Structures are given as structure tokens and as C-alpha cells.
């Protein structure tokens, strides 16, 4: 192998137990190679006129054989591999030439390395796992740095605890919660920071209209040191304003979340696709793999049982349906109304296509991606870009916003464009909020209701949530063995089958 060919090499595991191996040299470098070989259980011989105290101790304990003389060419015969590890470049070259003559693989530890048959990668071991790192001999210092970093990480992999750190509408109201949502640059920055942490095996971030969470598989040390709370920005929050759930409690929490039991409209189904999308994004970014896939798949499995059990107790409203119920309860006749829909994402499409079939007219506003209008709604739906939105506000007596914009897209500058002749209800389903709450003070004819407003109104209409949550937790506990199987599989180093 020469320098131009160094990156054409491959890493292989040599099974050297009981096989004859040779190290030529008796100093510090030779000692390191001797220790490396001894881990594999060979019949090891050292040829050197002199040996240091460390090598001598191995000889005295019978772990290696020592031939106290200078190297001779025939010493290489019959050996599986040879290390030329003297402090003489000329002697090492002689060893290499003798090995090549007798067709024995040889590694030189000095400047002759590029002529050798192999190099030794930087190696770290953890139980039965061995990781090797090599630069092909070109940058040994860098290889060792990478090896040391991996070694630190491997020491933290004895267990993978499931952890959830987050907050939601039950802990912070919409105004308090808004600054903590991971949108835009904050999402990217949080993901980058978590990727740099030791002890984070895998993670994903769930960011919905009513909750923001980091879901992670972490080492014991990381679980206990509070770093995820810091990244989420919860350091100055009181303990009752956020939650940190570990182990079984974290899994139970995921089951309730995926079942929609902790949503603002309990029983809704959007959360299922939101969690799946969050996991898929995490996998694409390299944040998540088999660990998170198993946790999420298992929680989705349990959530199906939860939904089947408690469905008779719920109205099963999606957020779109809830908004419609709110409008009807507050005197809006949809067949005679003009609705301005802001946003063409999942909720926006749900409104236009599924929830507003009886509405008189729909003005559908979009930012970049122009939505497709089904033929069944042709003539009822008019498309409008955000740039033209202010010119159409006066036509609407209902405005619904559900975008992922990082700030207010409807604010006080739009106040002059509101219809002054009839009451206007503005429903803000965005998080962060899309509508400036000050618009609610504009006049008695403009009402702005956000997610919290809908939640409180709905809760008054709903069956006792304590009973619903109690039943849901009972179902989750009945699947405790599923959680234990996954947790134990990570501790043993094998994923569950």
C-alpha cells in the first residue's frame, strides 16, 4: 500500500485466537501493539535484544514469549501477522522485506507505514462492541480524536431512557406558550444544539398548535442533568408550567398524546399525522432512527385501543369542526356567510374541502403554494394571495387563520379594511398566533378567539375529562409489557423483535 492507495483499504476483523503472531521491538510502541494483539488471544512472540519493564512483566506472567536477540529474516515464517515496531527505521524496513518475501502481512509503525500491508486503526471497545477509526495512516491524530469522542459516547449507551420535555395548553396559556414554540430558525437552532449533546441517542421535536415537545432516547446522565430543559428555554419557568417525563411516564404520555386525549379538542385525529410527520422529519435530518421509530409505533398502537374505548364519550371534533360549532353557537349562519380562510396547509384544506360545504362563499388566501380547488367547490371558492388579502377583508364576516407564519399576518394595520356594517368573528388557530389580539379591542363588532378561547368554550360542552383520562391511562397501563420489552431491548443492546 502506498499513500495514493491508502484510502482504498478496508477494515477487517482478524480472528487471531491461537494463531502465531510476531512483534519485533520491545519499547513503548511495541508494548501498545502487544496489548492490542493480546486482546485477541494469539500465540504472541516478541523479538528484541532488550525489552522495557512493561513488556517484561507480560513475559514473566507467561502471556507472551520473548526471544532476546536481534531480528532474523526467518523469524517471520509461520506467523499470521507481524508488527515492525523498533526504534530503527532501517530494522523495520528489513522486517517488512522479510515478511513480504515469506508472504506474511506486516505493519511498520514508522515512516515505512506507506509500504506496509496494513495499518492499525484507532480502536475503542465497549462490552462486545468494537469501533475502529482510520485515516489510512494519513492523520493518526485525527483518528484518535474521533475514537476518543466515540468512546465517550459508547460509555453512555448502557441504557436508552425515553424522555419527554415540553409544555402545552394545560400548563401555559396561549400568550405564555407562544415564545416557546419551535418554529423557523428556533426549530433549526434547537435541533442543531441537541445534535451536539453527549448522551442523546435519538430525538424528535413535536410542535403543534397547543404543545411543543422534545421526545428523546437518552443516557442516564443526560436524563438527569437538565440540559434539555435548558434548550427548550424552560430554565426560568416554574415547575408547574412545563413537564419532564421519564421512562414509563413518558411512554404513557405519548400514548395519551397520540390518542388525542391531551389535545385541545380531545379525540381529534390531526395529532396522529403530526407525530408521524415529526418523526419522518427527524429521520430525514438524522436525528432519529430505530429507537424513536419503535417508541412512536408502540404508542400509536396503544392509542388505537384508547380511541376505541373512549370514542363514545367524545364528540370526536377536529379543530375545524370545533371552529364551525363555535361559529354556529355564536349566531353565524354559514349558508349566508363569507368566510376568509388564511392558509393552505392541512387545517386550511380541511376547512375548505371538508368543513365548509354549506358556506355561502369562501375566500381562500395562500402565501406561496397555490391550493387546488376541487371541482365540487368551483364557483364557491375564490383564491387570493396574502398580498391581496387586505383588499378582500371587507367582504368577509368570518375570518379563520391556520398558517405556520412566525408572526401576525392580520394586525392593526388591517383594521380600516374590516366590514363596519356587520359583526365579524376572527378565529385564530395558528401557533404562534397569526392574529394580533389587539384587533379584539377594535370595536364591539369584531371578535377574536384563539385556541385557548375555543378550548375553554369546548370544555364547558364536553363530558367529564377526568373520566376520559382515567380510562385512557388504564388502557395504557394494560400495555405496560410493551413498554418494558422495548426498554429492556435497548439496555441489552438489541432492538425489540
UniProtKB/TrEMBL annotation:
Residue ranges occupied by any Glutamyl-tRNA reductase N-terminal domain in the UniProt entry: 165-309
Keywords: NAD, NADP, Oxidoreductase, Porphyrin biosynthesis
Pathway: Porphyrin-containing compound metabolism; siroheme biosynthesis; sirohydrochlorin from precorrin-2: step 1/1; Porphyrin-containing compound metabolism; protoporphyrin-IX biosynthesis; 5-aminolevulinate from L-glutamyl-tRNA(Glu): step 1/2
Site feature (Important for activity) residues: 253
InterPro entries, per the entry: 4pyrrol_synth_GluRdtase, 4pyrrol_synth_GluRdtase_N, GluRdtase_N_sf, NAD(P)-bd_dom_sf, Shikm_DH/Glu-tRNA_Rdtase, Sirohaem_synthase_N
Keyword Glycosyltransferase: no
Known EC number: 1.2.1.70
Reactions the enzyme catalyzes: (S)-4-amino-5-oxopentanoate + tRNA(Glu) + NADP(+) = L-glutamyl-tRNA(Glu) + NADPH + H(+); precorrin-2 + NAD(+) = sirohydrochlorin + NADH + 2 H(+)
Domain Quinate/shikimate 5-dehydrogenase/glutamyl-tRNA reductase: 332-455
Stated family: Belongs to the glutamyl-tRNA reductase family.
Domain topic, free-text comment: Possesses an unusual extended V-shaped dimeric structure with each monomer consisting of three distinct domains arranged along a curved 'spinal' alpha-helix. The N-terminal catalytic domain specifically recognizes the glutamate moiety of the substrate. The second domain is the NADPH-binding domain, and the third C-terminal domain is responsible for dimerization.
Name of the protein in question: Glutamyl-tRNA reductase
Amino acid at each position: 500500500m502506498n499513500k495514493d492507495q491508502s484510502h482504498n483499504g478496508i477494515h477487517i476483523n482478524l480472528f487471531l485466537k491461537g494463531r502465531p503472531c510476531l512483534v519485533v521491538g520491545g519499547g513503548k510502541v511495541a508494548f501498545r501493539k502487544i496489548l492490542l494483539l493480546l486482546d485477541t488471544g494469539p500465540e504472541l512472540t516478541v523479538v528484541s535484544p532488550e525489552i522495557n519493564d512493561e513488556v517484561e512483566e507480560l513475559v514473566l506472567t507467561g502471556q507472551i514469549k520473548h526471544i532476546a536477540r536481534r531480528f532474523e529474516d526467518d523469524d517471520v515464517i509461520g506467523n499470521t501477522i507481524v508488527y515492525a515496531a523498533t526504534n530503527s527505521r532501517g530494522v523495520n524496513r528489513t522486517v517488512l522485506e522479510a515478511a513480504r518475501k515469506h508472504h506474511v502481512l506486516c505493519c511498520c509503525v514508522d515512516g515505512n507505514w506507506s509500504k506496509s500491508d496494513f495499518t492499525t486503526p484507532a480502536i475503542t471497545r465497549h462490552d462486545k462492541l468494537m469501533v475502529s477509526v482510520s485515516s489510512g495512516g494519513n492523520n493518526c491524530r485525527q483518528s484518535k480524536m474521533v475514537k476518543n469522542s466515540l468512546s465517550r459516547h459508547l460509555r453512555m449507551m448502557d441504557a436508552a431512557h425515553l424522555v419527554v420535555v415540553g409544555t402545552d395548553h394545560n400548563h401555559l396559556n396561549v400568550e405564555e406558550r407562544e415564545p416557546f414554540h419551535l418554529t423557523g430558525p428556533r426549530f433549526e437552532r434547537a435541533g442543531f444544539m441537541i445534535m451536539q449533546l453527549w448522551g442523546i441517542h435519538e430525538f424528535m421535536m413535536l410542535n403543534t398548535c397547543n404543545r411543543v415537545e422534545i421526545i428523546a432516547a437518552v443516557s442516564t446522565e443526560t436524563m438527569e442533568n437538565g440540559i434539555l430543559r435548558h434548550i427548550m428555554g424552560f430554565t426560568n419557568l416554574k415547575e408547574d408550567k412545563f413537564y419532564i417525563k421519564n421512562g414509563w411516564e413518558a411512554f404513557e404520555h405519548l400514548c395519551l398524546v397520540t390518542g388525542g386525549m391531551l389535545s385541545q379538542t380531545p379525540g381529534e385525529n390531526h395529532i396522529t399525522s403530526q407525530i408521524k410527520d415529526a418523526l419522518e422529519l427527524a429521520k430525514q435530518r438524522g436525528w432519529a432512527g430505530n429507537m424513536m421509530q419503535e417508541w412512536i409505533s408502540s404508542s400509536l398502537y396503544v392509542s388505537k385501543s384508547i380511541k376505541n374505548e373512549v370514542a363514545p364519550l367524545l364528540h370526536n371534533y377536529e379543530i375545524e369542526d370545533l371552529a364551525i360549532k363555535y361559529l354556529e353557537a355564536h349566531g353565524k349562519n354559514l349558508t349566508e356567510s363569507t368566510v376568509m380562510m388564511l392558509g393552505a396547509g392541512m387545517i386550511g384544506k380541511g376547512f375548505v374541502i371538508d368543513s365548509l360545504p354549506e358556506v355561502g362563499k369562501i375566500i381562500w388566501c395562500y402565501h406561496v403554494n397555490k391550493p387546488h380547488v376541487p371541482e365540487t367547490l368551483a364557483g364557491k371558492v375564490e383564491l387570493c394571495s396574502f398580498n391581496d388579502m387586505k383588499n378582500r377583508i371587507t367582504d368577509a364576516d368570518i375570518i379563520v387563520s391556520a398558517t405556520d407564519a412566525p408572526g401576525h399576518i392580520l394586525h392593526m394595520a388591517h383594521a380600516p379594511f374590516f366590514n363596519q356594517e356587520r359583526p365579524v368573528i376572527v378565529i385564530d388557530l395558528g401557533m404562534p398566533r397569526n392574529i394580533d389580539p389587539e384587533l379584539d379591542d377594535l370595536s364591539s363588532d369584531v371578535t377574536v378567539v384563539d385556541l385557548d378561547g375555543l378550548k375553554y368554550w369546548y370544555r364547558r360542552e364536553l363530558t367529564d375529562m377526568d373520566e376520559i383520562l382515567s380510562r385512557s391511562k388504564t388502557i395504557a397501563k394494560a400495555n405496560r409489557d410493551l413498554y418494558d420489552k422495548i426498554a429492556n431491548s435497548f439496555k441489552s443492546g438489541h432492538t425489540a423483535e
